[in-house]
Amino acid sequence: MDRLIAMRVFVTVVDLGSQSAAADHLDLSRPVVSRYLAELEEWVGARLMHRTTRKLSLTAAGNETLPRCRQLLELADDLQAAVSVPDAAPRGLLRISVSTSFGQAQLACAMTEYVRRYPEVNIDLQMLDRTVNLVDERIDLAIRTSTELDPSLIARKLTVCRSVLCASPAYLREHPAPQQVDDLSLHNCLSHAYYGKSLWHFTVQGEALSVPVQGNSSANEASTLLRVILAGGGVSLLPSYLAGCHIRSGELVRLLPDAEPLQMNIYAVYASRKHMPATLRSMLDFLSERFTEEPAWDKGL
pTM score, two decimals? Predict the structure, then answer.
């Protein structure tokens, strides 16, 4: 029996809550997972888990064994990292989850540059406008935009996400541009379905202001809102990484520049610091280098 693999199987079963989930995560068959658990119990000389059809729970021996298994696995991983070739080029598959708008506007070009630099890496971009479970969906890295990230997550802040209030010249020819945030109640305000659908938040001269808004359309991702705004459909708050180039080209007009919308951050989220492959580490470093605190897409706005 490979005792390190058996311990890793045991820890993964506990963390994910089932043998089938652990089998999927470790790319093993369910019978192989069961065999490793049985052999580990035989080696330890005690039953480690109560197995029922509904859930798994640790025995007293299991509770004693689990932290020691974690320590041994960390030591093994540290040893492997210490003797591995530091200059080995990143290689293999990276599955990355990202919102449709950020993926299309910014990440696709970044990934083209990354694979040009590291040609032995393959990127699988999952454009998903929802929060993914990294383990269950086998995602190596998720790019998330948020005001407050769950503190239990392992994340690296990449950059800021500012929003801009904008409309097309065609819309403004028919509707006078708002002069203050309260004027937005007179406009067709198109909102993101999951963010600020009925109340938009601004800071004006250091004072926080909120204004109720309404409109005839909403969407669950920003790229669709952009298309509606470009077509003259109304006013919207759009991320500057998406709208910036259209404002600079004159296709969109920025409104109320002295009213600063609520700012969010963009994070790279991953599952573990302890078992990070070199390829994932290189991707995190690459993204941190590319997406700085003052992102290029905000220049000129």
Answer: 0.70
